Structures are given as structure tokens and as C-alpha cells.
Model the fold of this input.
Amino acid sequence: DAKTTQPTSMDCAEGRAANLPCNHSTISGNEYVYWYRQIHSQGPQYIIHGLKNNETNEMASLIITEDRKSSTLILPHATLRDTAVYYCIVRVAGAQKLVFGQGTRLTINP
Amino acid sequence: DVKVTQSSRYLVKRTGEKVFLECVQDMDHENMFWYRQDPGLGLRLIYFSYDVKMKEKGDIPEGYSVSREKKERFSLILESASTNQTSMYLCASRGGGDGQETQYFGPGTRLLVL
Done:
């Protein structure tokens, strides 16, 4: 699985959009980009995933650059409950395990 | 919504005890996983199962065994608990085939071995 690079921490004001970047410059054509988050002392929660098109669901939007070397997770209206560690993961379809890096610790401030 | 449940949120055991961690999923998923999570080490795969009675070793299987007698249930067994098995244990499940790749996690069991 390709390696990902994320900022260690970020802050965002409540009600604003939180934009979390991820670099995956060695991604290959059959690798998906997944985002999970982990709120303190809980299991990781699936947010969204994509291959090359931008994706949106009820939780977030995922923007993948045309060359697929980076992506951005957007939480459109951040709330205090969005404070968590956010993990960007790339994996080949069918691969059994997920490899979590260190992630980005996002703090939403009132 | 996919639901993955784990039998305990917190568990305290003594060295040498046999420990059972249970995981149940309600989405008829073929694949189930056990990870442990430790500070600075991320999630590490212990075992996974791709069907009933089938199991495969992950990256750190030593000291652990698993059981999958029914599709919805995947158990992790610590035959003789040791202090270095103090950790957060996470169960996950995933469907099979295209479009079913997402792993869904349970709430985790925080195990303390004294």
C-alpha cells in the first residue's frame, strides 16, 4: 500500500469548513483513497472513499487531484463533535488489512 | 447501518489468565478482523477470517488465537495473558467483492493485564 503524509495537527473554528490534506504521491492506479476518523477511546469510523472522482456523502466531501497524488477531506460545517484524529489510507482493492499512519489531530474550537 | 459490537469496552485480567474477546457483526460480512492499537505503533493486524472456520495470521499473531464458528461472530483468544498484551483491541468486518471493500470497526475493548 502506498504511503501517505498528513499534517500532525490542525485547528478549525466551529461552523467553518475543515479541509484536511493528504499526500499520496506513490499511489498506483488500482489503489483507493479511504478516510477514517477516530474519536478518543473509540473505534475508527469510516468517513468516505474514492478512486479518482470526487465523492460526497452525508459526512464529508473527498476531493482527489487529477494526478491522484493528493486529496483533501472537507467537513463542510465543523462541529465540536468532529474533534478527532483523521486518517488517510490508500489501499489496493481486495487487500485484507488497512494500514493506518499517524493521522491528523483535528481540533474544532468554539 | 453496519453494526459491529464487541463484548466489553473495558477489561482487567491477571497475567496467565485465558481471555476471550468477542465480536459480532450484523451485515452478513464474509471478512472479519482483529487489530490491536498501541500509542506510536498504529493499528496492527492480529488475525483475520474470510469465511466460517477459516482464519489467516496477520502481522502479530503470536500469543493469540481466533475462532469463527458462525459467520457473524469472530472471537480473539489470549491463551495466557501477559502484560505486553495490554492494549486497545479493535474488531472490524468487511463484505466481499466489488463495492464491499469498506472495513467497519467496533467500539474497541481496552484490555489491561496486571
